[in-house]
Amino acid sequence: MIDMSIARQLVGWTASAILLVTLASQVRTQWVTGATRGVSRRLFIGQSAASLGFLGYSAMVGDTVFVFTNTCILLTALVGQAVDRRNRARADASREPPARA
User: Fold this and answer.
1) Torsional class of 40: left (φ above 0), alpha (ψ -120 to 50), beta (otherwise)
2) 20 to 30 A Cα–Cα from 34, which one of 10, 18, 23, 61?
3) Cα separations (Å) of 8 from 1, 2, 5, 35, 67?
4) How far is CA 63 from CA 46, 52, 57, in A?
5) 12 CB contacts (<8 Å, ≥6 apart)?
6) Is there a contact between 89 and 35 (Cβ–Cβ < 8 Å)?
7) pLDDT band at 79, cuts 50/70/90?
8) Segment 38-70, tens digit of pLDDT
């Protein structure tokens, strides 16, 4: 017979891994391509706010899977925001006319 607590943990950690790989892949794509088009700054703000809320809730109910996952999602949002800022700064710099001497 399968221990249900182990099965629940396995489902939780597997879902967490899938989500984190997906988010990390998106941030990596932004980093490599330098893309800014279609990237909403509000997404990172909303993701950060939601992750903080879920992190607090997860800690209060004592769910280790969700504490870990929401901490990583928050970090992903912060890194994604930093990459987006870098990409936008590079795009802006490439559109500026050369300085005259």
Assistant:
1) beta
2) 18
3) 14, 10, 5, 38, 15
4) 22, 15, 9
5) 65, 66
6) no
7) very high
8) 777 788 888 888 889 989 999 999 999 989 999
Percentage of the chain modeled with pLDDT above 90: 30
- Tell which CATH architecture fits domain 4-94: Up-down Bundle (1.20)
Q: Does the structure show a pLDDT above 70 at 99?
A: no
Looking at this protein, which amino acid is placed at residue 70? Answer: N
Give the Cα separation of 4 and 77 in Å (integer).
Answer: 33
Report residue 98's pLDDT band, with 50, 70 and 90 as the boundaries.
low
Map tokens 């899938």 to a residue: 18
CA distance 49 to 22: 19
Q: Read off the DSSP letter of residue 76.
A: H
Sequence spans of domains, the chain: 4-94
